[in-house]
Amino acid sequence: MRAAVLTGPRSFTIQDVPLPQPGALQVRIRLEGCGVCPSNLTPWHGPEWMNFPTDPGALGHEAWGEVDAVGDGVTDVQVGDRVAALSGKAYAQYDVADAVAVVKLPDSLKDLDLPGEPFGCAMNIFRRSDIKAGQTVAILGIGFLGAILVRLASNAGARVIAISRRQESLDLAKEMGAAETIPMHDHYEIIDQVKQLTGERFCERVIEAVGKQWPLDLAAELTAEGGRLVIAGYHQDGPRQVNMQLWNWRGFDVVNAHERDPQVALQGVKDAVAAIDGGLIDPRMLITHRYPLDRIDEALQATEDRPGNFVKAVIVP
Predict the structure, then answer these.
(1) How far is Cα 233 from Cα 141, in angstroms, rounded to an integer?
(2) Which of 33, 71, 168, 261 is 20 to 30 Å from 144 by CA-CA measure?
(3) pTM for the full model?
(4) Cβ proximity of 302 and 289 under 8 Å
(5) Can you give the residue range of the structural domain that contains 68?
(6) What is the pLDDT of residues 82-109, one digit of tens each?
(7) Would you call 123 helix, strand, or coil by DSSP?
């Protein structure tokens, strides 16, 4: 099969490698595609801790496709089932996953690109946010996750204030149900606007979905006394500082919404598939760019630069 191998900073090569074989309780998936996750960017840049070359297909963890082989002991999944999978080497034509780590996709979704893992992340972030009808929710960073969270929060009856850098992102937030949008430009101006919009109470729930120091600082400023600050951004470029005085004074809860329990992650994917099948989330609004496997570096560059209407890219083998 053909697989992408990261051979150095910002440099994937496409290689012919042996077809992986499923072991006991595993399935092999003929991949239809794999989403590109922003968490791939730091390894792609080539930090000191990276080892090159990577295993074939490595970094790809947002897979979907059709099961084409099953290992011994697999009973709940059959050859021909279309699935979303939690696997780890899906920048390739085939990948192997544990049979318990795949979610069957209904026939009604057969025409959709469906990287289940990131949709599942959004569902789990929403669950951890504990958003209720009547609350005011600020969401900082309207990319793929932020846009889904706008839809889920507004559908739950919350008033959503979307804050993001690009006008295209703010337009998407409006489409997804945001009541208010604010450009993410001036720290104190944003605080004043939210203060006015909330009658000086600020927001019962704030979701930081950027993964940078400034939005984290801003998110704390927008969180009401006794509220909840939810960290959904992926902070992977070094330590962070927090204003502990403010956190103490406001008395809000702080939730790290990154799940690591595989069963919880899998349940999020199941919830996402149900939400998509029910029409609550439309992947076609969110998956804006498709790249063939041999243009994977270009896909990662677009994920970093976010040109135009970019929300999320997928790699198709």
Answers:
(1) 8
(2) 261
(3) 0.96
(4) yes
(5) 2-105+286-316
(6) 999 999 999 999 999 999 999 999 999 9
(7) helix
